[in-house]
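Practice problem: Spermidine/putrescine transport system, permease
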Amino acid sequence: MTRLLIHLRRYSVYRGLTDLYARSPMARVLIVCIVPLLWIIGTTVAPLAQMVLVSFYESFPVREGEAARWTLANYASFFERPLYLTAFMRSFVFATVVTFLTLLVVFPIAYYIAKVAPRGRRTRLLLLVIAPFWVSEIIRSFAWIVMLANRGAVNSFFSFIGIPGTPVELLYNNFSLTIGVIYLTSLYMLLPLYAALEKIDDNVLEAAANLGAPAWRRFLRIVLPLSRDGVVAGCSLVFLLVIGLYAMPQLLGGPGNTLFATTIGQIFAKAGASWPQGSAFSIILTGAALAYVGLFVAIFQRRGRGRA
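Answer key — structure tokens:
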């Protein structure tokens, strides 16, 4: 190894980089971050920039030898048909409700693993929760179809215990879509919550209990404020994931549950030059979702500073 370093130091490029790394803190940051930055630019920024460009085209692909014609009609078409605006608003309402329900369902699980379960079992419990997510979204969607079908496990159980009106229509409606999406996104809520809850010092909770604070007060005054970062991160991840779902709404939702991402997919699937319109709608959805999450994060940060 020493010989290799001595050999490399003979090259001016290597020597220049090492000297720059030693002298400049900014250069150290840049050298360390250059690969992640290139990855983010190449896989996220560049495709998004290309989609923004295509969204202003009159047609795509541009024919060879012809100049690209620019237009705002692709964005204006979003406001021309109420169907698009309805699906757009439905997506935001649905994503907000599902995010809140996911938080309610997952928070007790994360708290149990982080604070109640013995330390030796926490890793195994996390693996047990994560294991179902090794299976693809399509397989999990069909598993829910089998579970919620008229002759599935749920309706069979209802029939066994004598519930009248069975089979109950559980598929292809808001119920099946909500259950499936909560199951799909629960991991993205669990991991940030677990990381935040696990950092809370047990001595603080024990001190509050010794001073006579009941469980609900300890939760409201200690656990919830100290887990705020995990709640914000988990809700942001789940919302952004739900707002862009395509496969599961197609499989578990009904005609009245069409989300905007599904509408965008249908536009891209049309024959002809429909990609500029689909790109424009994608940019609208992405920008609105990021602004919505940014406002949510800003509100929580302001409240956190106010309490501090």
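Discussion: The chain has a mean pLDDT of 86. Students who identified this feature from the tokens alone can consider the problem solved.
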